[in-house]
Amino acid sequence: MRIAIITAMEEEMAPFRSQSQITARTQVGKVIIEEAVYQGQSLILVESGIGKVNAAVAATLVIERYKPDVIINSGSSGAFGAGLDVGDVIIATQFIYGDVDATCFGYEPGQVPQMPAKYETDADWLKVARQTAASAELPYALDFGLVLTLDSFMSEGERVEGIRSTFPLVKVSDMEVLAIVQSAAQYGIPVLSVKAVSDIAGQGDVTANSFDDNLDVAADHAAHFTKLLVNSSKRFMYCDK
Predict the structure, then answer these.
(1) Is 37 helix (H, G, I), strand (E, B) or coil?
(2) What are phi and psi of 183, to 5 degrees?
(3) Rounded to the nearest 5°, which phi and psi values hold at 114?
(4) Known catalytic residues?
(5) What pTM value is reported for the model?
(6) Which of 36, 72, 122, 215 supports an S-S bond with 190, CB 3.0-4.6 Å?
(7) Keyword set for this entry (predicted)?
(8) What is the pLDDT of residues 65-106, one digit of tens each?
């Protein structure tokens, strides 16, 4: 099985690099791609850069060049959901854009014209994530739910409340994952999203400072669960087949 792991930032990729043997490295524009081995499993490590366009470029590059069986997006996020705290991990069940609005043409909030209103996580890989979570003792809280992607850092309170009103089920937001999902969907490749909370959305400077202070914690927690997925994926995906 060929697994690609995409992160936006160097800090989010560091936990993978530190425990993997890097066998090859290439860079295309801002996208860094490394072939690696982690506990006997071949990985493609991809540092995309921040934002939707960088993420879409990275996803397309890794798909065209390496044809992975699955992509896992690991990294930080801002919490919208009640009760979430820094370090908690969210596995996406659904993805919606939080900053797309073509409703005047009859589309749903968050729906890019002529594209799906929302994207669902592949059922088989979501089962792997649930089984992995159930079989592990985790040093952080873990939940499943809706992830929004926006090209904005969500610190401004009034805007956050507006998004909560439009998308009341949202758990966390990020700036990349749905661009990866949408790109991969064109090729029929599943994407799993593992997002750890670095900050609570809508608290102004407190949100920004929390991101700076807790990025490494979020990166470590997201990477921890992603590594569990890597180790358990073959066992769970094929044990009943």
Answers:
(1) strand
(2) -65, -45
(3) 70, 10
(4) 12, 199
(5) 0.94
(6) 122
(7) Amino-acid biosynthesis, Glycosidase, Hydrolase, Methionine biosynthesis
(8) 999 999 999 999 999 988 999 999 999 999 999 999 999 999
